[in-house]
Amino acid sequence: MNLIENTTQHSENIVAAKVIAMTKKIITLMTQDGQYLTVPITIQERRDNLFIASIKDIWRAGIWIPVNRKFHSFLQYDWLANPTTNS
After folding, report:
1. Cα 41 from Cα 35, distance rounded (Å)
2. Domains in the chain, CATH or no CATH each
3. Which residues, 6+ apart, have CB-to-CB distance to 85 below 8 Å?
4. Rounded to whole angstroms, how far apart are CA atoms 49 and 58?
5. What is the average per-residue pLDDT within 60-84?
6. What is the DSSP secondary structure assignment for residue 37, as one 8-state letter?
7. Cα angle for residues 30, 33, 34 (degrees, 5° grid)
8. Each residue of 28-53: pLDDT tens digit?
9. What 8-state DSSP symbol labels residue 72?
């Protein structure tokens, strides 16, 4: 599979979403097409004050962020960049 096919195949799982609610354990998001997703907050993330503050700032600002629809998780990179791998 070449890079373009691989990117196209996986891009349907990557969607723009914005935070609409947050509890201690779950972040609720709404995608651009109106679908609701939940992203669980891990114990490590709950202890990370910077992560929590960042999510709250993103929520207040109404910023759209990339989310993996299939795995219900945030991306560690944006959807325009390819992640780097250490080989």
Report:
1. 19
2. 13-74 (2.40.50)
3. none
4. 14
5. 80
6. E
7. 45
8. 999 999 999 999 999 999 999 999 99
9. T
What is the identity of the amino acid at 29?
A: L
What tokens does 7 get?
A: 């990117």
pLDDT of residue 8: 45
The stretches of the chain forming alpha helices (DSSP H) are 3-11, 43-47, 49-61
**pLDDT one-digit tens code per residue, 1-32:** 334 444 444 568 889 999 999 999 999 999 99
- The conformation of residue 73, written as its DSSP 8-state character, comes to E
Handedness of CA 27, 42, 69, 59 (dihedral sign): positive
Q: Which residues of 30-41 are buried (b: 16+ CB within 10 A; e: fewer)?
A: eeeeeeebebeb
| pTM, entire model | 0.75
